[in-house]
């Protein structure tokens, strides 16, 4: 299949038409717009990554399992540390994305300046060609009119060849010579303009071909740069996923070292309060409990009579002690 090139496919049969050139310029402007849109897209993604990274850094500063002990505490510390590292990596990714966007911006500005010179040069050629074409068409009209004037003068002279008025014949003859000279001058001017226009058209065609080649090279560079920029962008995002997974792997490793048994034993050794539980509370029946008497007959009588008097002497018969237990003072 024959290869297609800009220089072979953007012509027009009308000499003053710039349709092919305008089509190329419109396409290049659309390409420049695409560059700017992708550039802005990458910048916006960079802002998202930066905000996400900063949010993760702030999140890593918050308390998370501050009261935990031993292996779980170490795992939580590693977890927070890696979240902080993930945040830092996203901030670094944001800077890498901005660098790529800046490279695209520099490329776009470089092409813009290069295109500007070509466009200005071609605009000048277009104006020159249009003006020469207009001048040539005007000289053609003048030439045709002068030729008609010459023919009219010659016909008038031929009609009056046999006329007796010599003065009139001289006048017609002078007019014929005058119109002939004018037509010849118009012919030279017309031919000069046609030659100048033809030369200008040839130069314009050469410049048009050069411009097409430059624009085609610009398109090759633009498409290649955009493709590489997007390729780099997705590679950066993929690498970020790999980096995140590597950081999260550290968390998984620390969690593998987390021992439920060790944490329980560590807590027990650190905070234990004793190994003897309290004694059970027993049931006590109210009626089976031995109690001291609340009162006695002796105490009642003593309260009424008062205490017995101590013996005064051994011969005191009133308070003599009787040794016989069967003895009674009651006599019947």
UniProtKB/TrEMBL annotation:
SMART domains: FCH. Residues 296-316 are annotated as: Disordered. Residues 94-160 form a coiled coil. Keywords: Coiled coil. Residues 4-263 form the F-BAR domain. PANTHER family: PROLINE-SERINE-THREONINE PHOSPHATASE INTERACTING PROTEIN 1, PROLINE-SERINE-THREONINE PHOSPHATASE-INTERACTING PROTEIN 2. This is Proline-serine-threonine phosphatase-interacting protein 2-like. It comes from Huso huso (Beluga).
């Amino acid at each position: 299949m024959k290869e297609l090139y800009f220089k072979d496919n953007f012509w027009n049969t009308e000499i003053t038409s710039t349709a092919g050139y305008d089509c190329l310029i419109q396409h290049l402007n659309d390409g420049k717009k695409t560059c700017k849109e992708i550039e802005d897209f990458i910048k916006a993604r960079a802002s998202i990554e930066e905000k996400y990274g900063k949010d993760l850094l702030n999140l890593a500063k918050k308390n998370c399992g501050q009261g935990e002990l031993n292996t779980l505490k170490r795992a939580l510390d590693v977890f927070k540390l890696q979240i902080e590292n993930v945040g830092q990596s996203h901030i670094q990714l944001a800077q890498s994305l901005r660098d790529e966007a800046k490279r695209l911006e520099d490329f776009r500005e470089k092409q813009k300046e290069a295109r500007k010179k070509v466009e200005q040069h071609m605009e000048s050629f277009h104006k020159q060609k249009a003006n020469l074409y207009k001048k040539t068409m005007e000289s053609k009209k003048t030439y045709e009119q002068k030729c008609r004037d010459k023919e009219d003068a010659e016909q008038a002279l031929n009609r009056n060849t046999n006329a007796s008025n010599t003065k009139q014949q001289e006048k017609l003859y002078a007019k014929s010579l005058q119109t002939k000279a004018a037509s010849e001058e118009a012919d030279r001017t017309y031919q000069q303009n046609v030659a100048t226009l033809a030369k200008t058209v040839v130069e314009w065609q050469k410049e048009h071909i050069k411009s097409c080649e430059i624009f085609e090279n610009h398109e090759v560079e633009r498409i290649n740069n955009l493709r590489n920029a997007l390729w780099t962008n997705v590679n950066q995002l993929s690498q970020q996923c790999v980096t995140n997974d590597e950081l999260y792997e550290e968390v998984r490793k620390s969690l593998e070292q987390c021992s439920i048994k060790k944490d329980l034993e560590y807590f027990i050794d650190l905070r234990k309060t004793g190994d003897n539980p309290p004694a059970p509370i027993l049931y006590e029946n109210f009626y089976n409990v031995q109690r001291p008497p609340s009162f006695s007959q002796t105490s009642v009588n003593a309260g009424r009579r008062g205490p017995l008097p101590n013996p005064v002497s051994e011969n005191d018969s009133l308070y003599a002690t009787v040794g016989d237990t069967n003895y009674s003072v009651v006599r019947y």
